[in-house]
Design goal:
By secondary structure, the chain is α+β, with helices and mostly antiparallel strands. Strands 14-13-15-32-18-21 form a 6-stranded mixed sheet. A 5-stranded mixed sheet has the order 8-5-9-11-10. Helix 25 runs antiparallel to helix 26, helix 30 (about 655-665) crosses helix 34 (about 755-775) and helix 32 runs antiparallel to helix 33 (about 725-750).
């Protein structure tokens, strides 16, 4: 200790600790960090315990929790501190101080290992301080990204251990032991995405030493480097197997679906280009380029650093210092420098900046190629956030070393050296002054992650936590419809709902990924349909409702302004009673005839295809409390199923569906026109592309893309107005090529199946429709007029031919469908979402049919359902054309009839803008209790197009419970005093008709399911034992646990049932005996069991088994590696 104090290193560490107390400035007056993606909970210990299991029952009906297992270690500090202090605020203070100090100490240990002498004090202090205080880390502090902090701590120490072991300054076994231990404690939260920086550091270091050691010792040293790399990674894997093993399982079973949900490879690349937009090399060298900084009016501090000349100039000092360092080192020919270390750090910096820049030019194409062709690399889709540390760490070291080198070379006076060094440390702290206030927590005014939790939240949460474990709560009012976020009037905002952060119960809400049954419950409340709500609540196991008066929408519209109607509705339900009221929160109890259980045997079993678009309507309107609607089942289950629902696919039934297809057509980028001498390159590229395209559909669409390019090329040629013969010949040739493209596309379409052919022909028709509008605007050329007229006529003829061929909905009351019948039989039609409307006529393949008992052959059929004309909601229906000339600041109002809250309505018309300023349109309603008017369309209305041609407007709007009077408003405001002159026709406001149509094949099975007497016990959140008594027929065992393919059912032998060693039984499970689940009632699991008698069934969440196996591996590896370290490390 005396030695440490004597050389001042003790004081250096004390300094790091003191600046690590910065978070104390963020906490005062009862503030805590909560919400957004921060992950903090009121009951941190309870949440930490839940991480031991791969299934968490809290989010809706439960969710996989395997991905969070690494947080068992990463979130242990906050759990420990919060538990010991009994306070979330105190626990967060200590946690933040811990991470501050750990980050600084990590860099300090790294630098001190190479530069131990007293003269390097500035290098140690400055690099450690800078590693703590920088903007890459600050953007993580507003949600306290402990996973990012963890890898931030690990990288300097990881580099140190690799360097020392590869250079043989540390024994191999000692290196393995400490490397494994390092990544046990600092494991990036078990998030593979945050390990990107580690892989860059690791493999660059391995490759670097492979080159260096090979030059020194040849192949023997190369083998040693390879051995170190393999053993280090093996140790990392084994000691972290408890979270890596479940994630490997998830990767095999869920990677493809997760990739598809992100928009596929093209969607990933598109997102990456957005993230990397400002990550240029020069911005990164200035330690900026942070995506959140740019094009944001609400960022709390970025504008100062992007616009203030002083801060801009200061940021350029970083690359200047780096250049100065390189010049000095080269000039001194590496004298007095650790060449091997500095070259490694420089290599890390160069590779790190390429990865941190992502898809940003000039080397961004490399990153895009990695995303396309390296399996699993798309998980690193946000390059800046995933690889930023791999650049920040080595670059900060180089900047620190550069300043040290400059100071020691040019400042010889010790006092002046100390003063300059101290000023530079102060300057770097001052440059990052946002650290010293709490403004950066306000990420989107007024929403912040630094909040005060109202007392009523904690009181109600404590009450809920003491309710039975079977409690399942529906959250009201419904969530913000745009972000599906939980937002309150005390500035809380989070995608993870507040009651899930404060309670340990199952909280059900209409989140973005909520199953259809949840939407059905909310819809039943909106409609005031108590019977439907109770039925769906019973099926889903919901037994409580939590109403919160503090909920708001993102626009700031409070719940009691428009959403309070929901509570008025549930208060009118006779089956609900107020259980507890605390402040702005009220808890209601749903009274059942009998309580629902986690497992049951349904008596009414129906099956449905997985892609049935009407499943939500079927579960809401056709289900019973003792039914199960199973998706995508095997044929063997059909023997006990009562009904099989087969959905009809409505063709272009959604409002503006055809216009949406047109809107997806992208305008081509013309680099060369047909009259260019290099145009042959365009034709060659198109020819190669078509040859490489294998599927008929893809080739047809490619041909139509090229046909659109031909039209645009012709338009560009005509605008040049060149009378040259060759020029006009190119116009004629391009017309010929256009026709060839279209004909080829239609020929390819004819090779497809009926429904796919129809879909493709619709898209071809959309291209022709769009191309026809472009030809209308062609500039006429006397020599080409005849050819252009012929082209327009040819397009119109093709469109007319397609109109007779295409099967699609053109009239709101005449719906066209395709239906695929799997086998011949008698089918009836079941309609949903109809209200009081009934079809007037039904045609199948042109023949009129009845609703009941129709003999239908297997195959694809065309279905047409005709309805009576719908009532116009205009008080004075409009006929013909209506002309408007609206003065500035005024509006034209068309009065509507009352819009029922039970329906949606379409507003549609054709319009042509004539002169002046284009008008806005919006639908408004009078409030019941005040003089305000609520806007039911987009805020501030929607600006109509200024094109002088006929355009189409369609919008879907819903009636509101607070309705009084409705109107359709055209208005013009604040546009230089000009009027708005326009014409509309075909104006219609009517109920949106979106019925669900299913064909039902009823199975007249005679046997009843006999296995009524069951019981179960829960061993943990991932394991249940269900006891079946006296089953006499095959049956379906259903649950109210959220659906996941990982839930397996195992019929236990008597010996297994009596085995109390559940862990060994689960690990040794015979997978050949497992039953995979069927998705049931849109949210739950069911298993088909074909065993009679009395026995036990083990219901197990399979990823937990992998967690047990991984945990056992980690437990065995730790003492084994310690033993090897003791026996071989010393040697």
């Amino acid at each position: 200790m005396k030695k440490i104090i004597k050389n001042n290193k003790f004081l250096e560490i004390i300094f790091l600790f003191l600046i690590s107390l910065t978070p104390l400035l963020w906490f005062n007056n009862g503030y805590v960090i909560l919400g957004h993606d921060s992950g903090f909970r009121l009951d941190q210990l309870g949440y930490w315990k839940s991480l031991f299991y791969s299934w968490n029952p809290s989010p809706n009906f439960g969710a996989d929790w395997s991905i969070f297992k690494g947080f068992l270690v990463t979130q242990f500090p906050e759990t420990l501190f919060s538990t010991l202090t009994g306070s979330l605020a105190a626990g967060e203070k200590l946690t933040f101080i811990f991470w501050f100090f750990a980050i600084g100490l990590s860099m300090y240990i790294f630098v001190n290992s190479f530069y131990k002498e007293q003269k390097f004090w500035f290098l140690r202090i400055f690099s450690s301080t800078f590693y703590i205080y920088n903007f890459f880390l600050l953007q993580a502090w507003f949600i306290a990204e402990r996973a990012k902090f963890s890898i931030y701590v690990a990288l300097p120490l990881c580099t140190l251990l690799l360097y020392k072991t590869l250079s043989k300054q540390m024994s191999l076994w000692k290196g393995i032991f400490f490397f494994s231990l390092l990544f046990f404690f600092f494991n990036a939260g078990g998030a593979p995405t945050f390990l990107g920086s580690f892989f860059v550091i690791f493999f660059v270091t391995i490759i670097y030493f492979a080159v260096v050691n090979f030059q020194k010792g040849g192949i023997r040293e190369l083998i040693y480097v390879f051995k170190v790399g393999v053993l280090f990674l093996t140790g990392l894997f084994l000691i972290n197997a408890y979270w890596i093993a479940p994630q490997i399982y998830l990767m095999f079973y869920h990677y493809s679906s997760s990739l598809a949900a992100s928009g596929g490879i093209s969607g990933i690349i598109g997102w990456e280009s957005t993230i990397s937009k400002n990550a240029s090399f020069i911005n990164l060298l200035r330690l900026e380029g942070i995506p959140d900084w740019y094009n944001s009016q609400i960022h709390p501090y970025s504008s100062l650093y992007l616009k203030n000349i002083f801060f801009i100039a200061f940021s350029f000092l970083f690359p200047i210092v780096l250049v100065g360092l390189l010049v000095l080192i080269v000039g001194q020919k590496w004298r007095n420098h650790n060449k091997q270390l500095l070259l490694l750090i420089l290599a890390l910096c160069l590779v790190g900046i390429v990865f941190a820049a992502g898809s940003h030019p000039p080397l961004g194409f490399i990153y895009a190629l990695f995303i396309k062709y390296i399996p699993a690399f798309p998980i690193f889709r946000s390059s800046f956030y995933k690889f930023g540390v791999a650049f920040w760490f080595p670059f900060i070291f180089l900047i620190s070393y550069g300043l040290y080198t400059i100071f020691t070379n040019y400042i010889k006076n010790k006092k002046l050296y100390f003063l300059c060094s101290a000023l530079v440390v102060v300057a770097i702290l001052a440059f990052h002054f946002p650290y010293f206030n709490a403004n950066f927590f306000t990420w989107n005014t007024p929403y912040s992650t630094r909040i005060k939790i109202p007392s009523y939240v904690t009181v109600m949460s404590d009450y809920i936590n003491n309710l039975p474990s079977t409690t399942r709560i529906l959250l009201l009012p419904s969530l913000d419809p745009v972000f599906h976020a939980d937002i309150t009037d005390w500035n809380f905002w989070s995608l993870d709902l507040l009651p899930r952060l404060t309670t340990n119960k199952s909280i059900v809400a209409d989140s973005a990924d909520a199953p259809e049954i949840i939407g059905g419950m909310y819809n039943a409340i909106q409609l005031g349909n108590e019977e439907q709500f109770l039925r769906l609540a019973y099926i889903s196991g919901v037994n409580k409702i939590l109403w919160r008066d503090d909920a708001v929408y993102g626009s700031g519209m409070k719940a009691n302004a428009q959403l309070h109607y929901e509570e008025d509705t549930i208060k009118s339900f006779h089956s609900l009673r107020l259980l507890k009221e605390e402040g702005k929160w009220r808890l209601y109890d749903i009274v059942y005839v009998k309580p629902s259980t986690a497992f049951f045997i349904p008596k009414d079993i129906n099956i449905i295809a997985e892609n049935n678009s009407y499943i939500g309507q079927l579960i809401a309107e056709k289900s019973t409390t003792n039914s199960a609607l199973l998706e995508n089942v095997e044929p063997s289950l059909g023997n006990i199923a009562g009904k099989e629902y087969i959905s009809a696919n409505c063709v272009l039934c959604e409002p503006s569906a055809f216009r949406k297809i047109i809107g997806q057509i992208e305008s081509p980028q013309l680099r060369l026109l047909p009259n260019s001498k290099l145009y042959f390159l365009v034709r060659a590229k198109e020819y190669i592309s078509l040859k490489r395209t294998k599927s008929y559909e893809a080739r047809a669409l490619t041909d139509m893309i090229y046909s659109y390019r031909r039209i645009v090329e012709i338009n560009s040629l005509l605008r040049k107005n060149d009378q040259d013969h060759n020029f006009n010949q190119e116009v004629f040739s391009n017309i010929s090529r256009f026709k060839k493209n279209v004909n080829n596309a239609m020929a390819e379409a004819n090779l497809l199946s009926v429904e796919k052919r129809n879909d493709l022909l619709v898209r071809i028709y959309a291209y022709l429709y769009h191309e026809n509008r472009i030809t209308d605007s062609f500039i006429r050329n006397s020599q080409a007029n005849a050819a252009i007229d012929d082209l327009e006529l040819w397009i119109v003829q093709k469109m007319n031919t397609l109109e007779k061929t295409i099967w699609m909905t053109k009239n709101k009351t005449d719906k066209k469908y395709f239906i695929d019948i799997p086998s011949v039989g008698n089918y009836s039609l079941v309609f949903t979402n109809m209200g009081q409307i009934t079809p007037s006529e039904i045609y199948l393949d042109g023949k009129k049919i009845d609703v009941q008992d129709n003999r239908i052959e297997a195959g694809t059929h065309k279905l047409e359902v005709v309805y009576s004309p719908l009532e116009s909601m205009l008080v004075r229906p409009a006929e013909g054309e209506l002309s408007f000339n609206i003065p500035n600041g005024e509006r034209e109002r068309l009065v509507l009839k009352p819009l029922s809250r039970e329906h949606l309505y379409t507003v549609s018309f054709d319009y042509r803008f004539n002169s002046g300023i284009p008008p806005n349109i919006k639908i408004t309603q009078d409030a019941v209790n005040n003089d305000n008017r609520y806007e039911l369309t987009r805020k501030n209305g929607e600006l109509l197009s200024a094109e002088g041609t006929w355009n189409r407007y369609e919008y879907v709007v819903g009636g509101d419970p607070n309705s009084k009077n409705f109107s359709l408003d055209f208005f013009i405001c604040c546009k230089n005093g000009k009027n708005s002159n326009f014409t509309i026709k075909n104006l219609n406001v009517a109920q949106l008709l979106e019925p669900g149509v299913n064909f039902v094949n009823t199975n007249p099975y005679s046997g009843k399911i006999q296995a009524e007497d069951i019981s179960y016990k829960q061993l943990d959140p991932t394991t249940y034992i269900v006891s079946i008594h006296n089953a006499t027929t095959p049956y379906v065992l259903s649950s109210r646990i959220g659906y996941d393919a990982g839930w397996k059912a195992f019929v236990l032998d008597p010996a297994e049932s009596q085995n109390e060693n559940f862990l060994s039984r689960i690990i040794s499970r015979n997978i050949n005996k497992e039953n995979n689940p069927y998705k049931t009632n849109t949210f739950a699991n069911s298993w088909f069991l074909n065993k009679k008698g009395s026995y036990d069934v083990l219901i197990e969440y399979e990823p937990q088994r992998f967690s047990y196996i991984g945990g056992l591996i980690a437990l065995l590896f730790f003492p084994l590696s310690a033993l090897l370290f003791i026996l071989k490390g010393r040697k």
